[in-house]
Amino acid sequence: MTTYKNIKGIEIKYLSADPPAPTVGQVWYNSTTRVVKGAINGVAAWSSGGNLNTEHANCGGAGTQSAGLAYGGFPIVVASEEYNGTAWSEGNNLNTGRSAIVGSGAQTAAIAAGGLTNPDGSVPRNLAEKYNGTSWTNTGNLNEAKTRGGMSGDSTAGLMFGGSINETGVGTVNAEAFDGSSWTEVANQSTGKSGNGSAGTSTAALSISGGANANVESWDGTSWTEVNNLNTRRVNPGGGGTTAIALCFGGSEGTALTAKTEAWDGTSWSETSDLATARNNMARGNVGTSTLNLCSGGSPSPAATEEFTVTTFTTKTFDTD
After folding, report:
1. Which domain holds residue 226?
2. Disulfide engineering: 55 pairs with which of 145, 153, 278, 302, CB 3.0-4.6 Å?
3. In a domain, 39, yes or no
């Protein structure tokens, strides 16, 4: 018998009440009413958030919309800031200032890897640091120096994939897994990527676009599989979520900045509300979810923050007879 898990690759969640902010296409079982429900549409919008204290372009990012993190950036800075859903506050600095850094994780368990320590941007580094909510600590280096890649997971179990390994900006297919102290090379992506977006965990990740293609690949903890492409290819976008529900926004299409935002439902990408300001090189990493996300820093507004929220969902009750 074909099941929902066979079709979508995920199980239906068993909940006592309807979720307050479901994703379009999300299905759940309401144990109180004893029916299967799903979200069939919602209203999405970007709104202004609090400005960063330090201008961060080409920085790393982690956390959620109400507990975010932005660190490093260009020009080479060590500043690290925390977001509480309203305003940014300065925290303890990175040990090594870097731009084009990659990040992921929670505000209390984040990771920062790779990046550039020289202003001319010609020498990628293999440095890595992890954050415990108070301070940054140097940890094991990447096996391959790189910059502008994708990242998923957190400071205890992370994954870095793609990125540029030299000044030409050519993307690598390599991926590395982090166990909390050291990095191990794992199976390569099918396509080399630089400036790719990301979502997910260390065992279930998405590598989104990057370079000259709209290719998207899904990681299952062992290997990469090509899935449906983005509608619009882009370099250096923001992103977040999981392999089942994710978001990709901003970046550049060739030489032009874009405000386009796309949502992933586990099968395909659909266009949703655009950023208020087209930008790229915002806090790079896996930040937030497909319904509550955060876009901070970047070009041309390195101090600006926008918040993405999906509201006013319509739910549908499904016949299970």
Report:
1. 44-310
2. 302
3. no
Q: How far is C-alpha 271 from the chain's CA centre?
A: 17
**β partners of residue 227:** 216
Q: With contact defined as beta carbons under 8 Å apart, do 112 and 72 qualify?
A: yes
Query: Cα separations (Å) of 288 from 100, 248, 292, 309, 319?
Result: 20, 11, 6, 10, 32
β-bridge pairing 102-106 and 109-113: antiparallel
What token pair was written down for 56? Answer: 């961060």
Instruction: Specify the pLDDT at position 7.
Output: 45
Buried b (16+ CB within 10 A) or exposed e, 240-263: bbbbbbbbbbbbbeeeebbbbbbb
Does 22 fall in a domain?
no
Q: How many domains does the chain have?
A: 1
What the block records as the tokens of 254 is 């060739």
The domain spanning residue 57 has which CATH number?
A: 2.120.10.80
Say if 124 falls within a structural domain: yes
Query: Which tens digits make up the pLDDT trace of 62-121?
Result: 999 999 999 999 889 999 999 999 999 999 999 999 999 999 999 999 999 999 998 776
Query: Does 169 fall in a domain?
Result: yes
- For the chain, helix, strand, coil in percent to 5 are 0, 45, 55
> Does residue 128 contact residue 178 with C-beta atoms inside 8 Å?
yes
